[in-house]
Amino acid sequence: MMDLSQEEWEEQLEQDSNAFILDVRTPEEVEDGYIPGAQNIDIHLGQGFLDELEKLDKSKSYYVYCRSGARSAQACSIMNEVGFDKTYNLEGGFMNWQGEVAE
């Protein structure tokens, strides 16, 4: 896992043709907006979260975010434990996101 600043995250994401944006917030939080192209899997689902991770392509690069950066750091650690090599945590999370937002 690597913690990336907003600038690093956006820059690296733009240049990564194998990127997957993962939003680990709750559905209620997602209703307030999300980063375009993100797929949501709520980390609070516990085993359900792990089940959904198993459906993902482990060869991709995962750009993970939550509201403030804490849950996404936890998600990256879990992902690394189950075989995902490239996980990038957005420092400061969606709360500090300055980029484009979809609703």
UniProtKB/TrEMBL annotation:
Domain of life where this protein originates: Bacteria
SMART domains reported for this sequence: RHOD
Domain Rhodanese: 15-102
InterPro entries attached to this UniProt entry: GlpE_sulfurtransferase, Rhodanese-like_dom, Rhodanese-like_dom_sf
Signal peptide: none
PANTHER family tied to this protein: FAD-DEPENDENT OXIDOREDUCTASE, PYRIDINE NUCLEOTIDE-DISULPHIDE OXIDOREDUCTASE
Protein name: Rhodanese-like domain-containing protein
Organism the protein comes from: Euzebyella marina
